[in-house]
Amino acid sequence: MPASDQHKLYIKNKDIRKLVRDCVAGSDAIKTARRTDSTEQGGIYNTMGSQYLPVPNPNDDSIENQDRYAAYRTRATFINFTGYTKDGLMGMVARKPTEVDLHESIKYAEFNVNGSGLTLQGMTQSVIGNLLETGQDGLLVDFPMSAGGTQVQTAGLRATIKQYPAESIINWRVETVDSIDKVVMVALAEEVTKVADDGFSVDDVTYTRVLCLNKDGNYIQKLYNEHDELMFNQDGESDILIKKADGSNWKEILFVAVGSENNDLIPDKSPLYDVAEINIGHYRNSADFEESSFLVGQPTPVFSGLTEGWVDSVMKGGIQIGSRAGVLLPESGSAMLLQANENQMPSAGMDRKEAQLVKVGAKIISDQGGVETAEAARIKFAGQNSKLGLIIINTQLGFDQCFEWMMGFQGSRGENVFNINKQFYEATVNPQLLVAQMQLLDRQVIAKADVRRTMRKGGLIEHDRTDEDIDGEVEAVSPVV
């Protein structure tokens, strides 16, 4: 079996992920995607745009039919409900910054988490975005090992987190060891740019990085090129042995798969998949509506009671229609404009799908007039918020595990604070609750910190103002007795 072999669940979810990715990317991606479900048919069947807008007559490869389909596709309107929904959900998360306070040994990760200048906040947003689109994302903790990999030999080097989207997690294997399911192999696809011998030409190829446990239970990495050939270093070795700061071997694979439902390697459903499915249906209705409007929307003049002689003598050069032109008719002739009634079916289909988008969580569409209260919005979109909240929790757990591994590389231990915003709506404080807490404070039942925690949740106190800051300000303005 080659290293680039793909897991059956990866293959099963490939088209689903592409559908959501393309919808988020927008109209250009949708209108240029080609069908991939048949290798037997070609021609117009697999023409540009046919993946999401099937060709009405796929067996006719004539130039005329190709031109008609191109016009059919061009007139269709793709409104990016999926992308707008993702942006809205991401905005709900980003309305407050992530609370981060990492251990001193890995504090650098707040500003450069991947070794290429990406901030921890930036990677966090990227992970959440990928989870919304594909339901899965991967985080690999890596270390630029020097010879031996001991703490002295690796002084000055830093552990990093590398992000792998769902499309890169191509294969995995889990085995039961001492009644516990343990990941023993993960294969990751990596895009590599190879420069030709002339120094100018470049070629994008895919390598496969295999993370696995060897026969001794030690964590190693192997790298395979685009031809599935195992690659060796300058010393002729193929195994990349990963060591801790003290020189000991890791006994687990330092890779965590973050999911929209569970943090395991089994692909989870994309939260935006249902929105994307309806979005494509809306696009197809739009194509039919625009097609029928184009074909029969223009009024057609109809004449009756005309003789051949009258046509040849009076209408030989054609006619003009409008208030500044007149049409001469014989005594028994008549004229009228023929225009089809509005085709309601495609338009009704579009309206119905817009209503469905509201139900499945497209928050950027309003199904009622007026302004909703925050509480009404919470109730209305409780399911969507629950899904978003679960994504945030899984993301936090994934990064917490990575931070622990990073400190293992750095030879340190300690606590890390990493809290992503879960307050999606503007919070309000119940005045009665605040008064009751003040009374409990006076009776020494609760502390000032409890009251201030309530005020922070309600936005009455900025989240980054500590109790020490507030006490210092209070003492500074207190009158001297």
Please tell me about this protein's structure.
This protein is of the alpha+beta class. It has helices spanning 8-25, 27-32, 63-75, 81-94, 120-134, 273-296, 308-314, 344-359, 374-380, 382-410, 431-442, 448-457, 467-477; strands at residues 99-101, 136-142, 160-165, 169-177, 180-195, 202-213, 219-224, 240-241, 255-259, 300-304, 334-338, 417-419. The chain is built from 13 helices and twelve strands. Strand 6 and strand 7 (219-224) form a beta hairpin.
C-alpha termini separation: 84 Å
How many β-strands, per DSSP? 12
Q: Write down the overall geometry.
A: flat
The H-and-E topology, N to C, reads as: HHHHEHEEEEEEEEHEHEHHHEHHH
Strand order of the largest sheet: 4-5-6-7-8
Count up the helices: 13
How much helical structure, as a percent, in the residues? Answer: 25-40%
Radius of gyration: 32 Å
Mean pLDDT: 82
How many strands, what sense, and barrel or not for the largest sheet? 5 strands, antiparallel
Low-confidence stretches: 146-154, 362-375
Layout of SSEs?
Layout: H1 8-25, H2 27-32, H3 63-75, H4 81-94, E1 99-101, H5 120-134, E2 136-142, E3 160-165, E4 169-177, E5 180-195, E6 202-213, E7 219-224, E8 240-241, E9 255-259, H6 273-296, E10 300-304, H7 308-314, E11 334-338, H8 344-359, H9 374-380, H10 382-410, E12 417-419, H11 431-442, H12 448-457, H13 467-477
Antiparallel strand pairs: 1-12, 2-3, 2-9, 4-5, 5-6, 6-7, 7-8, 10-11
Helix pairs in contact: 1-4, 1-6, 5-10, 6-8, 11-12
